[in-house]
Amino acid sequence: MKKQLILVISILFSLGRITAQTFPIEVIKNSGDDDKRINIVVLSEGYQAGELDKFIADAKTFTNRIFNTSPFKEYSNYFNVYALKIPSNESGADHPGTATDISEPLHPVKYVDTYFNATFDSFGKHYLLYYEIDGASANDTETKIINVLADNFPNYDQGLILVNTPHYGGSGGDFPVSYSGYWGAAVSMHEMGHSLFKLFDEYYPGDDLAAEGINMTQETDPTKIRWKNWYNANQAGIHQHYYKGTPTDWYKPNSGTCIMESVDKPFCHVCKEGIVEKIHELTSPINAYTPNESTVEVENFPLEFSLDLTKPNPNTLQSTWTLNLNNIANNVDAISISEADLLKGINTLTTVITDDTSLLKVDNHETIHAYTVTWTINYETLGLTDIESDTQKFSLSFYPNPVSDYLNITFENSNQQPLKLDLVSLDGKRIKSIYLSDLTDQKIDLSFLNAGFYLARFYSGTVLISSKRLIKQ
């Protein structure tokens, strides 16, 4: 899922431009096809033409640090990183010395001519290194950033502005900004935590920025908070936010142990889970598969089927292979089908890939991500076999779990096909079947069930996508 809306906006702005602004781009990290990876583009700011080698070195240092930090370390293969070499007329960033949150000047006051107008003291806060001093967009810098990305790397997922200054600073927003010094990589991860992964600050960000999210809530019931599966595990709890010593009505999972509060800390388990969930949303582990033509004709057996998967490190992907609803293999990347394995007529071979990473609390986890490849094998009497293939991507959420009366379900399917939910008792008896529509929230009345444990089995056609335990209170 790329920045399609921003790209459309940039095209509209570009109508008034005569020529595109193109700059040299260098590969910092390549893990595969851009269309199948999360693409981070680092833009130089405050680097003069003679300092662009330093920019590349800084971008490489940032990349190495980021992808040696969990969970980016485990999912490094899902990312590409590029550096866009944009020269500035002068080095550094503006520092007007107008911040009101410290005693200025913290470092020398100066104004420099840079491409994106980076400045300290934005919004009156010294460490807020941003591309406008007050958000008024007097220089229309955000449009400039959008146009540069559209002209040079429109297939980006995240633009990151790296500022050539040793003085600590950074900011979030659609395009995170970071200084180039020692803690810069951590600042980048913190700010991308906001922009790409929708994490909140775990220091109190202010009333105007407080909201319900992955790691922020006003809920105090441990069974209802977003991170309920982590409650009382790995130091996660319900910790109150404070503002200048005054308690607020907002809560976070940790206290002083997460990079979203302090950049000298790692990501907490709740934020790691949020990042991994977003990686699953933006990408698919299926890099390629064979046979992959819409229709192929074969005459010789055995028939060979294989997957090329983008694997985490360590590999936590699991695959289940079924032929005509019968399980034939697990956790392999290739199988062979003999003539004796097939029925005369239509046969269906499906593999379902899921991620069993411990970075997600799988038991009672609200969102299921599953990816499938289905081959339809037409085995005719004369031995001529036609094979058709198709892929699907599923993202399915159901909550609350445990449930008292109503279960809420919503899902997205790349092919917009319906799902079927079978509610099954632990002794294998099917209690209820429900058909679910793509992108439609459904509320299912389960008040008639006795308290206990059940299985929620989700099917796409006849293919089992996922089986999850459901607790009825």
UniProtKB/TrEMBL annotation:
Signal peptide per UniProt: 1-20
Residue intervals of the Secretion system C-terminal sorting domain: 399-470
Keyword field: Signal
InterPro entries: MetalloPept_cat_dom_sf, Peptidase_M64_IgA, Secre_tail
Highest taxon above the source species: Bacteria
GO molecular function, one term: metallopeptidase activity
Keyword Signal: yes
Record-linked NCBIfam families: Por_Secre_tail
Protein name: Peptidase M64
